[in-house]
Amino acid sequence: DTGQIPNKLEIFDADSMEPIGSVEFASTGTLDIAIMPQAGALVATTWFDGVSVFDLASGEKVTTLDEVGDQARSPSFSPNGKRLAIVDRNGRPSVWNTDDWTLETAGFDNLDEPLVALRYRPGGQELVTLDRDGQIAIRDAQTYELIRTFATTSKLDSPDGLFAFDETGRFLLAVAGPSVTLWDVEAGEQIGRPFPNDEANVVAIQDGPDAPRLVTAEGNSRLIWDLQVDNWFDLACRLAGRNMTLDEWEQYGPSEPYEATCPLRPEADDG
Fold it and tell me: What are 199-249's pLDDT values in tens digits?
């Protein structure tokens, strides 16, 4: 008895809820999955059966990434679907060419601590990593050279890290254990204080119709956070009761000339 049970994964279009495809395989448990842009392939990591690649149209297994092994984490496709980045159980990253599923690179330079998570930034030019010391790093997605690092979040005792970008790719939500922080990727700065979240709570990131949503916990309450940047201006207007200052626009606003974002509110003093 191998302890294996049948797994069936069904994939649906998030807008129409029409089925895209499904895959079935025997496994001792699925850890993570990633779907290639344009839904061409699905990658599943498992506890004891390695990493499998499936063709979504046929549901057939294409290959296994034997070099990665069991208990891999954080599979992430580049936005164009040409590469898959993944972290093995020992925290070593690898990147695969999805045309023929060959290993493109194993390990990165200037990597002091094992990784727990990685994610391609929208646009595909950069790769974001999180290591077990809680340090967030930005790397070039072609050369994997280190571009910059952010201040550490919190040291991780176990592989437990998540990333989510807003639709513009400028803002990054980083989850390291119970610590949840929001970062301005361009400035390399944390925005505000960490989100309120109980120490024992497992953070969830839900896919929404327009942007991801974050779920944290405080006491007996579950807090759902809207991560769609367009909504933040209206919320800021209601809370501040005024327009943004020029300094605030420069730091938090879009890369466009200043304009009043709260037309029904008083103008703010410069500064």
Answer: 776 666 665 555 567 788 888 888 888 777 667 767 777 777 888 788 877
The strand pairing partners of 130, in sequence order, are 117, 136
Give the separation between CA 172 and CA 118, rounded to whole angstroms. Answer: 12
Tens of pLDDT, residue by residue over 129-146, are 888 887 888 999 999 999
Indicate the SS3 state at residue 23: strand
Exposed (0-12), middle (13-18) or buried (19+): which is 68, by Cβ within 10 Å?
buried
> Which residue, among 121, 251, 232, 239, has the nearest Cα to 190 in the 3D structure?
251
pTM over 0.90: no
Report the distance separating Cα 249 and Cα 247, nearest Å: 5
Q: How far apart are the C-alpha atoms of 38 and 59, rounded to whole Å?
A: 15
